[in-house]
Every structure is written in C-alpha cells, then in structure tokens.
C-alpha cells in the first residue's frame, strides 16, 4: 500500500512539465491564429492595392493634358535637367547621351510640332484634376458647363458625376422594387405563415440568391427589357428602370434574409403577450414585432444598398451604358461598376484612364465598406438589445 | 429545537456494508487539500475561502442548493474552469502535495489523473469501442490487443460489458441514457485516473438506471477516490462516506455522511438536509 | 366553492372581434403572402423561361463540343471548353479557400475570446469582405495578383520579354475568387462548429486530450457536413461570378484548351455575357445562348440545392441536440 502510494505520488511530479512539453501544438496554435487574420489582411490588401493604382490621381500626380505649355528654346537654360527631361519625354539614359545641341534641336522640334496640333481651348487642361472629376465644365462645343464622361476622345473627359448618378438611379429603383417585396415576404415567412410553409419558403426564396448575376443580366436584357418596354411604352429599351428591376431581383434575397433574421430574433414572448391581450396575429406582427425589429429592417436596406451599388454584370448588360445625366429613370444610364467592367480592358496599364477606373473602384470600396459597417453595427446592437444584454 | 426532534428523512446509512462506515476511513490519508480557495466569474465570487481536505479512496459528496458553488468547486479540481473566459482562482489546491493551481501545471496531464463524468452523458458519436479506444490513444496506447483488453476491462468495471459485448462496434448513441452514462464512466476509468469527479451523474436518469450508477460508484471506490456532486440527498446518504454542504459559495459543514445527516453541527445544514429549503 | 356560473361579461359568439378586425387580418396576411408568392413566381418564371427555351438545344453534342469552328454557330458550337475552364478555376479556388476559411472559423469558435478586440476586428473584416463589390475584387486581382505578385515573380524567375506570371491566368482568377468566397466558407464552418454540443469538447478535454486533439479528432469530423456546405456554397457562388475574372483570367476566345495554370481560360458565365451582348445576330444565336444559360444554371443550382439540404439537415440535428 505504502509503496503504491509513493508510486502514485511520483507520477504527479510529471505534472510540472508545463506547456513546453508540447512545442508542436504551440506552434500549430500560433499558426491558426495567424491564418485567422487572413480576412483582415485581405481587406487591407484590397484597400492598399486598389488604392495604389488610384493614388497618382488622388495625389494630383497625373497629367492628361494633350498639349504641353511650350517652353521657348531661349528659356532652356532656366530649366533644371530633370524638368527638361520630363518636358522632352526622354528616359534618363537617352537624355544623358544627348549633347546640348541635340537637346536644343529636340526643343525646336517640339515647338514646331505644337504649332501643327489642332487648337482646342481644353487641350492644355489636366482632366484628372479633382475639379474636372466632380465639377461641371464648359467643354469646347458645349454651351454651358456640363458633366461629361468621355474617356475615349481627343480631350479625355473624366467627370464621375454621370456615373455616380447612374449608379444611384439603378440602385434607387432596385431598392424601391425589392425592399417592400422582400420585407413583406419576411414578415409573412417569420410571423404569419403556417409552420409547414416556413420550412420550405425560406430556402426557396434564398434560391434566388443562387442565380448568378450574369443570368439575371441576361434575363433582363433578353426578356424583361422587351416586356417592360411593351408595358410602360418608354423609348429606350435598356435603361435605369430595367437594370434597377433586375438588380432588385438580385438583392431581394439579401434584404429578405436579414429582415427575416431580425424579425425572428424578436423574442416569441412579445408576440405571445400581444396575442394574450387579444390582438390578432397581424396586429402583433405589425404593432409589436416590426417596431422592435425596425433597426434590423434598416440594416437590411443599408446592406441591400451596398450590394446593389456594387453589382456589375446586371447593370452592364441591362442599363444601356450611355453616360447621360438625366432625371428620368427611363433613359439609358451608365453605372460606376459597368464602366470599370466595360473599359478597363481597353486602357493602357498605368495610364490616366486606367487609374481613374481604379479610383472609381476605390470609391465603390469605400461606399460599400461604410454601408456594410453601418448595417452590421445596427444589426449587432439590435440583437444585443433583444437578448437583453444592453 | 434540537436535532432529536427533527423527523429525519427515511433513508438508511448502511453501516453493515463493508467499508461503508465513515469512521473506518478517518485514518485514510488526505489526498486533495484545499486552502482558502476562492473563485471568481468576472467580478462575482462563486467560491469563498474554501478550506478542507478530501480523503483517499472514499466517496465524498458535495451537496447544497443550486448555485451554491458545488459544481464550480468540482470543476476546479481538474481545472475544467480554465475553459471559461474571465475566471480567476485564488488560494491553494494540492493533490499529493502538488499545487495544481500553479500556472506551471500541465492541465492535460492533470486531467489524465483526475477523470470526470458529466451531468449529461456525452459519449462521442462513434462506436462504443471507439469511445474508449479514443481515450486510450490519447495516452499513447497503440497496440490493438492491448486496447481491446482495456476496453473490455473498463466496460466490465462500469458494469456494461454484458449488455454491449455483442455490439461494441455500433454507435454509442444507440445506447439508453443510463448505458451512455456508464459508458462515460468506463471511458473515464479506462485511462486509470486516481480521482474521478462526477457532476450529478444520475440527475437525468430514471430510478433504475440511477440505482445502477450508484452501485457502480460504491464498487469503484475500492480503486478510485470519488468526488460526486448531487442534488439528491438520499443519493448522497446512500453512497458517500463524507459529505460537504455548500451554501452561497461557502463551505458550511464538512463531516462524515452519517454525522451530516443525523447530527449536523450547523443550523443551515440541518435545515437543508431535512428539506426545509433548497 | 362557488359553483354558480359566472355572469357572462361577453355574450358568446363573434363579439370579441369586430368585422374590421377580420378584414385587416385578411388584408395584411394576404398582402404579405402575395409578396412572398410574387417573389417565388418571378423565380419560377426565370427558371421556367430558361429551361423552356434552352432545353431544345441542350444536347450531348452541345455539352461535349468545342468552339473550334464558330463560337456563335448554333449547330456546331459547344460549351465544353467553358465548362472545363469554370471547373478548373473553381476547383483551384476551393484548394485555396477551404483550408484558410476553416482554420479562421476554428480560431473564431474554439480559441477567440468572444468579446475581445481581435475577435471583433476579424468578424468585422469577414462581414466587410462579404460585401465588397465583385468588380472591386476584379480590380484587386489585377492590381495585386497580376501587377504586383505576378510582375515581381517575372522579375525574379522569368527574365523574358513575354510575361509568364504577370498576365491574366487561371491561377490569378482562382486566387481572386478565393478571396471573394472566404467569408462564405468562414461563416458556414463557424455555424457548423457552433452546432457541436460543448459536452463533446468537455468530454474529450476531461480525458486529457489537448485542445488541438479535441478539435481534430472530435470537433472537425462532426463539423464535416457543415464545412462541405460552406465549400459547396462557395463553389456555387464562384461558378457564376463573372466580374472578378474579367481582368484576371477569362478569355473572350481561345482556340485550344488551357495547358497550365498560367494560361487564360474560357468561362461559362463570361460566355453567357459574350453571347448576350456580342452576338452578330442575337435572334439566330438565341437557342445557343439559352442552352448556355441552362448549363450555367444547372451547375450553380444543383450545388445550391445540395447545400441548402445539407444545411437544413444540420440545423435540424442541431436543434435536436440542444
């Protein structure tokens, strides 16, 4: 007995080995932690690398003017070598290999060339400056200041306002169409539908999310555009309205899921208390559950907005893609996302058009980031409140 | 009111059973030694300054009303509370003289020596054989015939062998609640711990299954030191040698079970065991 | 005991409720029910339209044919190269996204302290990643994978005039999609990990298993259906996405199948886009377009329905376990 006890007591000594006894596990657990940071790293990288390509525009380092202010040959000495090299558009090696005379000759050629260029009062304008990106400008041929997106023309006009308006128009139609529908469906499925119907209604509506956006775009382009034009009788077959309705189909499952989630998280006891006081099911849903879940409904709309403004293929295919500034929803329209998708392939890598498109991407990223952030915050608070934690 | 006036609940402490008399054990060496143990969940204190010792190879029961800290204390003994965020332990907790609260202690090794059976039976969704083999493989036992042997022994030890020997390789989830709990006990003893902690092991079972578990506990104390938390005072009286009564995080009284149930020193204990509150 | 009948406060009958009550209830339930029905009807119309018009040209030849002769020819063109291209980019994506997503979910459910700053940061990042527009992923893929990673790889290992890495490729498209579907996998895996009763983890730990042993031998095998759901959902989402691959790998037309992961590929979704917008004669190529859409829908929908069923079963099991 005694011997056995000391035996047992000895085995307790090894308890003190501590964590160092499993270095491999420690290492694996560190690894798990590091990998778990991937989402943060990705958000950071997206911001950094989309921003990196757009940065020269933001910082005002791009110049898209199609003519340069000509420096008279006589003033050549006033320029520093670096300035001169930039002016002549030469590489450093080439510039250094030239003697003063050659440089002078180059300057003279430049002056001659400038004389032969078509004269346009907007030619010296750097259209990538903030002013031209967001403010109207009376371009040559236009009577009054206007917002023009015309990147492929003699003067590259990069005004973003038509695209922003286009995106907002399509998004607005999408929200007006989808929010009432999705919200009503969420109320029905979460509060009023019989239990057996709930079981399959929710996955069925969520199936809509399984349709790829390119298919919705195809459907809008081939089928809906014609049908809607026949019904409403507007002029332009593809427009913000058609694109918005198709976009609405894409965000119905988003709005529905979040709203349904918010409504379901309202404790059952609220409804039961209302029913016990003699109200009907719809009164309980309308007067008790919906008000309690209203922040969730707000979150659903905000997240739906984020999804709609970032959607690409549907608007690319169904909006008509004309960058017109107009108040009508039945005019052809061009959104920010569609512009990137349609034009990036034709740009010169590193050129101003390329960088402006990345700038649009960065703007989209910031807008959707803010929308997601706001939506998540609201949803988080709501759930805490309903769980009685705050 | 004196103790003699109280009508005691009708349960008997079977003093004729060999080894059951608590006095017989007073010579047994203290195994677990607690000194000024306090436990906090965040700011709220769940255990207040607990000091006592648990003897070797006897059954010690923790009783008390819900929320009195008995389960918390039990889970301190194999440091299962470490899994919860924001808890803090103060004081000393020694087993064989080693402070198991020290941060240097390897809890994995500790838990191999201090086994645990939970309130809700929790067999793994694997076969019966695999449930026990899993525990063995954690110990580094790889030899198949050795595993088979230990599986049989532990199932016999948990009085389950005869019921399951023909279906060792079917899912453990097909067993009845009582059988599942005994499988959990078999799994715990398979790795030969010194101490077995039981957290209301029979609270979810019917009376027949409960009786089987109780029989098993009495059987197991020949080889193991058993600490059992129970809500059921008759159960404590039937199977334990020592009883500790907790109330609001404090240890009110700790003595032999006979003493606690027939002649408690504290009024609170008396009120509780006679069913006046709790 | 008073055995007398209590005086009738309300006379029996329908006087508890006024008729207006019934009308309101009927109206409200009807209206919301109608909205639900409308959504399902639209879904049915889209699917019905595609199946109805696409079925005629949906043949074995169409599925196994290529585009050697004419990609717009209804009689000759097939979608095999597109199906293979889409499959390749999606499978490659799975290899990248599943391990990272699952490990992140493991960290979030098994290790992270629920209220800590890190955890909230990670969750916030996952939620935000899910909301980043797909075209921005495309820009990111171009800016990071091709312009940064690819060109640097070229600089280091491939000193030729033609870029080997720094150009659109299956590899970059897959990586871009992996970043995009990361939240899908994380959320689905997390859900399935949370569904596992904590009693199982405690049982394993109480037997002296380490946390890692518990995770790998008890938790993960149980969570497998959920992880699979996440994978399937990610695949079905990625299979239909076009915007992220526009600049990172999809080709308008290729005469032959891609030979390596650094080649471009033809893609089913992108092909739908091409057929609907670039066709020389949209009326003539209509059957081809519908058949291609049907192929794409069959691919994504089958995956989706499987995922929904697996998930529904898992949720029911989880409810039963708690």
Instruction: State mean pLDDT of chain A (0 to 100 scale).
Output: 85
CATH architecture of chain C: Orthogonal Bundle
Number of alpha- plus pi-helical segments of chain A? 17
What percent of the residues of chain A sit in helical stretches (DSSP H or I)? 55-70%
CATH topology of the largest domain in chain A: MetI-like fold
Kindly report the name of the CATH homologous superfamily of the largest domain in chain A: MetI-like
How would you name the oligomeric state of the polypeptide chains in this document?
heterotrimer
DSSP summary, beta strand count of chain A: 2
Sequence-ordered SSE layout with sheet pairings:
The complex is a heterotrimer of chains A (390), B (278) and C (322).
Chain A: H1 2-13, H2 23-36, H3 38-58, H4 81-88, H5 92-97, H6 100-116, H7 130-134, E1 149-150, E2 157-158, H8 161-192, H9 195-207, H10 213-232, H11 240-264, H12 268-276, H13 281-292, H14 294-310, H15 313-318, H16 336-343, H17 352-386
Helix pairs in contact in A: 3-17, 8-11, 8-14, 9-11, 10-11, 11-14, 12-13, 14-17, 16-17
Chain B: E1 30-41, E2 44-55, E3 59-63, H1 70-77, E4 87-95, E5 98-99, H2 107-113, E6 114-117, H3 128-138, H4 144-157, H5 161-164, H6 177-190, E7 195-199, H7 207-220, E8 225-229, H8 233-239, E9 242-247, E10 250-256, H9 257-262, H10 267-273
Helix pairs in contact in B: 3-4, 3-6, 4-6, 6-7
Chain C: H1 19-54, H2 60-64, H3 80-111, H4 117-131, H5 134-157, H6 170-194, H7 198-206, H8 211-240, H9 268-277, H10 282-321
């Amino acid at each position: 007995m005694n011997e056995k006890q000391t035996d047992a007591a000895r085995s307790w000594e090894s308890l003190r080995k501590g964590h160092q006894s499993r270095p491999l596990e420690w290492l694996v657990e560190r690894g798990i932690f590091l990998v778990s940071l991937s989402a943060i790293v990705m958000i950071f990288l997206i911001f950094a690398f989309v921003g990196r390509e757009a940065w020269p525009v933001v910082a005002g380092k791009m110049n898209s003017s199609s003519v340069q202010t000509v420096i008279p040959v006589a003033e050549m000495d006033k320029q520093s070598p670096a300035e001169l090299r930039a002016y002549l558009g030469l590489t450093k090696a080439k510039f250094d290999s030239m003697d003063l005379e050659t440089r002078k000759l180059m300057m003279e050629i430049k002056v001659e060339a400038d004389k032969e260029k078509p004269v346009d009062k907007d030619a010296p304008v750097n259209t990538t400056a903030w002013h031209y990106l967001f403010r109207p400008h009376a371009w040559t041929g236009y009577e009054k200041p206007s917002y023009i997106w015309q990147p492929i023309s003699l003067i590259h006009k990069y005004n973003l306002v038509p695209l922003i308006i286009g995106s907002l128009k399509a998004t607005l139609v999408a929200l007006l169409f989808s929010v009432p529908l999705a919200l009503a469906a969420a109320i029905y499925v979460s509060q009023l539908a019989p239990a057996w119907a709930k079981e399959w209604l929710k996955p069925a509506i969520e199936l809509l999310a399984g349709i790829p956006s390119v298919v919705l775009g195809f459907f809008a382009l081939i089928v809906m555009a014609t049908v809607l034009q026949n019904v409403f009788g507007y002029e332009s077959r593809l427009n913000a309205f058609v694109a918005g309705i198709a976009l609405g189909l894409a965000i119905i499952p988003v709005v529905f899921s979040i709203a349904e989630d918010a409504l379901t998280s309202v404790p059952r006891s609220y409804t039961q208390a209302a029913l016990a006081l003699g109200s009907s099911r719809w009164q309980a849903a309308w007067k008790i559950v919906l008000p309690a879940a209203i922040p969730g409904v707000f979150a659903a709309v905000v997240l739906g907005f984020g999804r709609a403004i970032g959607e690409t293929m549907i608007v690319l295919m169904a909006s008509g893609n004309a960058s017109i500034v107009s108040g009508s929803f039945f005019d052809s329209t061009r959104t920010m996302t569609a512009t990137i998708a349609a034009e990036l392939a034709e740009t010169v890598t590193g050129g101003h058009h390329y960088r402006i498109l990345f700038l649009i991407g960065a703007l989209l990223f910031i807008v959707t980031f803010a929308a997601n952030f706001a939506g998540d915050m609201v949803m988080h608070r709501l759930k805490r409140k309903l769980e009685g934690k705050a | 009111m004196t103790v003699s006036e109280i009508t005691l609940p009708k349960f008997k402490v079977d003093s004729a059973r060999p080894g059951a008399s608590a006095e017989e054990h007073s010579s047994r060496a203290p195994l677990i030694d607690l000194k000024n143990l306090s436990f906090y969940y965040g700011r709220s204190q769940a255990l207040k300054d607990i000091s006592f010792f648990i003897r070797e190879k006897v059954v010690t029961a923790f009783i008390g009303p819900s929320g009195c800290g008995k389960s918390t204390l039990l889970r301190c003994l194999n440091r299962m509370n470490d899994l919860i965020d924001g808890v803090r332990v103060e004081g000393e907790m020694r087993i064989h003289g080693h402070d198991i609260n020290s941060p240097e202690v390897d809890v994995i090794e500790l838990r191999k020596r201090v086994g645990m059976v939970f309130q809700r039976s929790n067999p793994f969704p694997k076969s019966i054989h695999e449930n026990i083999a899993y525990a063995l493989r954690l110990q580094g036992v790889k030899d198949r015939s050795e595993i088979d042997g230990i599986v049989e022994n532990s199932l016999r030890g948990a009085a389950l062998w005869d019921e399951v020997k023909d279906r060792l390789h079917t899912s453990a989830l097909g067993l009845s609640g009582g059988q599942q709990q005994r499988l959990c006990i078999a799994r715990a003893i398979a790795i030969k711990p010194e101490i077995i902690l039981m957290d209301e092991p029979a609270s979810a079972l019917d009376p027949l299954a409960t009786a089987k578990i109780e029989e098993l506990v009495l059987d197991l104390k020949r080889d193991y030191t058993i600490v059992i938390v129970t809500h059921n005072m008759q159960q404590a009286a039937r199977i334990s040698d020592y009883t500790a009564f907790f109330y609001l995080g404090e240890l009110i009284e700790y003595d032999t079970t006979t003493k606690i149930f027939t002649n408690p020193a504290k009024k609170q204990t008396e009120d509780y065991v006679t069913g006046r509150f709790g | 005991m008073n055995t007398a009948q209590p005086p009738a406060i309300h006379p029996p009958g329908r006087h508890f409720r006024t008729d207006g009550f019934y009308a309101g209830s009927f109206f409200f339930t009807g209206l919301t029910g109608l909205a639900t029905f409308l959504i399902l009807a639209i879904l049915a119309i889209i699917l019905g339209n595609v199946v109805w018009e696409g079925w005629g040209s949906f043949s074995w030849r169409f599925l196994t044919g290529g585009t050697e002769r004419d990609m717009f020819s209804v009689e000759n063109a097939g979608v095999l190269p597109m199906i293979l291209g889409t499959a390749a980019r999606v499978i490659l994506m799975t290899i990248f996204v599943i391990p990272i997503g699952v490990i992140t979910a493991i960290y979030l459910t098994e290790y992270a302290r629920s209220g800590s700053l890190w955890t909230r940061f990670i969750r916030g990042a996952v939620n935000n990643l899910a909301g980043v527009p797909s075209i921005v992923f495309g820009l990111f893929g171009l800016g990071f994978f091709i312009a940064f990673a690819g060109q640097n790889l070229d600089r280091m290992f491939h000193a030729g005039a033609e870029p080997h890495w720094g150009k659109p490729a299956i590899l970059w498209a897959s990586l871009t999609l992996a970043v995009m579907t990361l939240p899908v996998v994380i959320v689905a895996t997390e859900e399935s990990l949370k569904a596992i009763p904590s009693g199982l983890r405690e049982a394993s730990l109480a037997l002296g298993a380490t946390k890692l042993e518990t995770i790998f031998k008890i938790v993960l095998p149980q969570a497998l259906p959920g992880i699979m759901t996440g994978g399937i959902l990610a695949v079905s989402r990625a299979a239909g996405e076009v915007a992220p691959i526009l600049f990172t790998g999809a080709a308008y037309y290729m005469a032959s199948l891609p030979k390596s992961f650094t080649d471009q590929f033809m893609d089913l979704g992108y092909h739908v886009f091409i057929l609907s917008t670039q066709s020389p004669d949209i009326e003539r190529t209509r059957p081809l377009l519908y058949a291609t859409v049907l192929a794409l829908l069959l691919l994504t929908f089958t995956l989706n329905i499987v995922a929904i069923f697996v998930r529904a079963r898992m949720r029911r099991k989880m409810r039963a376990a708690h």
